[in-house]
Specification:
The protein is mainly α and 142 residues long. Helices cover 51% and strands 0% of the residues. The chain is globular and about 50 Å long.
Length: 142
C-alpha cells in the first residue's frame, strides 16, 4: 500500500456532522474545509503531501518490475529527526539497499525536498493556540 511507504497514518480522520447535508451538500463541504484549514497549517500540509506523492512515484519508478523488493516505507519524520543531510543520505541508502537501479538521484532530490518540511506531529496547529502560525505583518504597522 502506497500510504505505508511514506509512513502516513490515516487512523485519525476528521469527521464533521452531516447536519444540513441533505439540503445543501456544498455548504457542508465548505464548513468541513474551513475547519480543516483552521486546524492545520494548510500550506505545510500540502507541501508534505506533495513530497509523499513524489516519493511514491519515485519508488514505483525505481522498483518497476521488482515491487516485492520495495521498502515498506520511507519515513519522512525519521529523516527529519536526523541532524544532517549526510546522515539522511546514509539512512536512505540503507532503506533502498534492495534496489538494483541507481538511487543516487532519487536520494539527492529527496534530501533537498525534506529540507524545511515540518514533522507530521507539528502540522497540527490547534487554531489560535499557536499565534506564530497566524502572524499578520500588516497588524504590526498600525
Amino acid at each position: 500500500m502506497a500510504a505505508n511507504r511514506v509512513g502516513r497514518r490515516c487512523n485519525n480522520k476528521v469527521h464533521s456532522p452531516n447536519r444540513g447535508a441533505a439540503r445543501d451538500p456544498g455548504l457542508s463541504l465548505q464548513k468541513r474545509q474551513a475547519r480543516v484549514t483552521v486546524k492545520y497549517n494548510r500550506k505545510e500540509l500540502q507541501r508534505r503531501l506533495d513530497v509523499e506523492k513524489w516519493i511514491d512515484s519515485g519508488l514505483d519508478e525505481l522498483y518497476r518490475g521488482r515491487e516485492d523488493d520495495m521498502p515498506e516505507e520511507v519515513n519522512i519524520d525519521e529523516l527529519l529527526d536526523l541532524p544532517s543531510d549526510e546522515e539522511r543520505v546514509c539512512k536512505l541508502k540503507e532503506v533502498l539497499h534492495t534496489c538494483s537501479n541507481n538511487t543516487d538521484t532519487f536520494i539527492k532530490e529527496l534530501v533537498l525536498k525534506v529540507q524545511g518540511l515540518q514533522k507530521q506531529e507539528d502540522l497540527h496547529n490547534d487554531g489560535m493556540e499557536h499565534p506564530h502560525l497566524h502572524h499578520h505583518p500588516e497588524a504590526e504597522m498600525h
